[in-house]
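step 3/5: co-fold with guanosine-5'-triphosphate
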Amino acid sequence: MPSNKDTIAAIATPSGRSGIGVIRVSGNKSQRIYQSFIGQEPENRRAQYSSFKSSANIVLDKGISIFFKAPMSYTGEDVVEFYAHGNRTILDMLLEEIVTQGARLARPGEFTERAFLNGKIDLVQAEAVADLIDSNSKKAAHSAMQSLEGVFSESILQLKEKIISAKSLIEAFLDFPDEEDIKFDAHPACKNIKECLGLLDSTLIKAKKGRMLDHTPLIVIAGRPNVGKSTLINYFSGNDTAITSEEPGTTRDAIREKILLMDRPVTLIDTAGLHHTDSHLEVKGIEKTHKAIKQADLVLYLIDYNATAKNANEEIKKYLPADVKYILVRNKIDLYNKKSAKKEIDNNKCNVSAKTGKGIEGLIKKIQQALDLNIENEDVVFARQRHIDALKAVKKLLEISLLSIENEEGLEVVAEPLRESLLIFDEIVGKTTTDDILENIFSSFCIGK
Ligand SMILES: Nc1nc2c(ncn2[C@@H]2O[C@H](COP(=O)(O)OP(=O)(O)OP(=O)(O)O)[C@@H](O)[C@H]2O)c(=O)[nH]1
Ligand SMILES: [Mg+2]
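step 4/5: write tokens
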């Protein structure tokens, strides 16, 4: 049975060739393992260049090792890191040797789990470590880094303190026996709870926006055959992702491409043209188009520039479910004379040429607006769903408490929801937690972190 007392080891860099590969060891056997590898006692936090030798005195590799004495280490335990050559076979040999010296292989996220259990970081910060590693845009990385630095935990603490003071204001009156006839002054407690609700609302807005950073929106390019769908995906991806041709019905399968739109990753799907056909293959492709449209966060519905508004409306009605967000994109404007090209100011309409790139910048802005992607300069919190759910639960409890004050219910009834919300805050930062929650959080980490 694995225990928190075991010394753990893992390769902390991805497999494949690289300049260096890192092996990390944590636990009370770290010092002994260092000594056996390097042949001398470690100096705390000093980089040492030397051979890494097996217990049979064979040089396995040469590199740098650093020993971090507890508690001033990532995990809070004795830690040693070996920086070897980035070759999987070498790293496997070194790891095998470390295991023979008494360490066991670490589970995913076990180093960070120990950092949490040893009080080096709270649970929100531990989650931020994984979010930072998984982040796929500058904004996401920046927000995860802020959480790791404790910004989100600090706002949780502020909320908690406000509730504690509201609760103590109420509990102070609970101590007076009824006969002393001292009347409860609800005003200060109400003020605190209302301030807390205001702070909670702004934290929830930031957290919900931050949640978007974790979601890669799906944008489906749809329309009748030959309107330029594949040409558009190729323009966005900057390469020949899809075959284009003047022959209608060229695209048969849905083609996915992940791109960055103003530093935000989005998935684009080029689809088979929508129309009535007897071709068995095309029918299969069109079924996939309908499926993709249903899953889309946004559809770019392409029509030819000279299509009438009536035709466009009929197509939209026929092919797009009512609840799907879409932008009507008139393509091939390069083929039409300037006079007839009117500027589209409508938010869900846009004129472009997928061939020349004309109007694409405007289309990108409309996509950003439609998907609310434009959070580059906004203050967001890289929150997880469990944080949002917890904050919402606290909001409900505070509202119940306020209502109880207004209804002049007993002070015990007023204080109880405040007590419950404090427990929720403790769960967010991991002051109280269950094995299931920890297992859920740390199992999604990579090995070696
Ligand atoms: N002039 C001009 N031609 C375009 C433009 N976009 C696409 N085309 C041409 O229109 C034809 C059809 O383009 P595709 O991108 O293959 O059209 P599609 O909608 O993917 O067609 P299917 O896959 O058959 O449904 C090709 O010959 C393209 O070169 C544009 O903006 N201007
Ligand atoms: Mg196509």
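step 5/5: annotate
The mean pLDDT is 91.
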